[in-house]
């Protein structure tokens, strides 16, 4: 599956409607973003069961602001609608492959438990 363009209109549906979603936040003027693009595209072809989305931060400024994107490229990974990874900077192919494998192998029961504990802790403050 090739990468898909993510906008304000389809972001939530994409994240909640798919098991694993990787998002590349980028801009056309960003050199590291352009260097990372072929790596991201290659990973999308090797992992057709995962949705690989690209968010143009220039075109989707409100979306980038709401996601608190402060530097690009930024890679985010969602599993079962939960943000499980977020890191700025262009990753080499081997590192991106490691992220993909780690997200695939997550124990989501444990992740949901940690999220619930974190939310309970925040509610007490």
From TrEMBL:
Which InterPro entries does this one have?
Thioredoxin, Thioredoxin-like_sf, Thioredoxin_domain
Domain Thioredoxin intervals: 1-105
Q: Which cysteines are joined by disulfide bonds?
A: 30-33
> Could you name the domain of life of the organism this protein comes from?
Bacteria
Keyword vocabulary terms for this entry: Disulfide bond, Electron transport, Redox-active center, Transport
Task: Name the GO cellular-component terms.
Answer: cytosol
Keyword Hydrolase recorded: no
Per the record, where is site Deprotonates C-terminal active site Cys? 24
Alphabetical list of Pfam families matching this protein:
Thioredoxin
- Which residues of this protein are catalytic? 30, 33
* CDD domains associated with the record: TRX_family
Q: Which GO terms describe its molecular function?
A: protein-disulfide reductase activity
Location of site Contributes to redox potential value? Answer: 31-32
Family indicated by similarity? Belongs to the thioredoxin family.
The protein's name in its UniProt record: Thioredoxin
* Protein source organism: Kocuria subflava
């Amino acid at each position: 599956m090739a990468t898909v363009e993510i906008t304000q209109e389809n972001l939530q549906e994409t994240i909640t409607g798919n098991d694993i979603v990787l998002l590349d936040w980028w801009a056309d003027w960003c050199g590291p973003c352009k260097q990372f693009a072929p790596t991201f595209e290659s990973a999308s072809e090797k992992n057709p069961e995962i949705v690989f989305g690209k968010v143009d931060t220039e075109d989707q400024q409100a979306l980038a602001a709401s996601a608190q994107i402060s530097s690009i490229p930024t890679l985010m990974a969602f599993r079962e609608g939960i943000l499980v990874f977020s890191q700025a900077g262009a990753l080499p192919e081997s590192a991106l492959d490691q992220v993909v494998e780690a997200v695939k192998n997550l124990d989501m029961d444990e992740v949901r438990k940690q999220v619930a504990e974190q939310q309970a802790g925040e509610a007490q403050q």
